[in-house]
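Exercise 3.2. Students should predict the tertiary structure of the chain below and write it as structure tokens, then compare their answer with the key that follows.

Predict this chain's 3D structure.
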Amino acid sequence: MRVIAGKYRSRPLRSLRGMDIRPTADRLREALFNVLTAGQPEGLVGSVWLDLFAGTGAVGIEALSRGAGQVTFVESSAPAARVVRQNLESLGIETGFTVVQGDVMKALKKIEPGTKVDFVFLDPPYDFAEGYRSTLEFLRSAAFLEEKTVVIAEHVKRFDPGEKFGTLARFRKLVQGDAALSFYRKGDAEQP
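Answer key:
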């Protein structure tokens, strides 16, 4: 596993042994960032991210490598949160991030009023359907989501996390191998 592009391009990332953590595959991460930066000359420069169920932190680190201004990594597993910190440290990233080791819902409820987020990436364990539903249900009315905020859920292609959660609606689905990405936005906004 490695960083795909940007400042830390081709640098390796650590993971945990076993199947407890399933990092987003390099090819799927590349496809995700190609979608998000298509037609955007400034790319992700200065963007604010939430990397929920962060695992190794690969997605948030990729965002930082491509110029994101701030990434908050939220991971409930203490060993996984340590891996996120180790990956950031190994790349020499010292600013522009926060690592929260704790429950995703509790972390979301603690986001300061007035905070605005550009991208929310969530990747619960594939067999944790409730993680998708409860997170997307919460995000539908989260004050930190604007109409332009893009919420991305990674999931196994045979599972559908849902089409619509209040005003938060899926506008694109990308399938690659056994994995898929569902893209959501509030209202009837166009694709990025």
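Discussion points: Helices lie at 26-37, 58-65, 78-90, 104-109, 129-139. The two ends are 27 Å apart (CA to CA).
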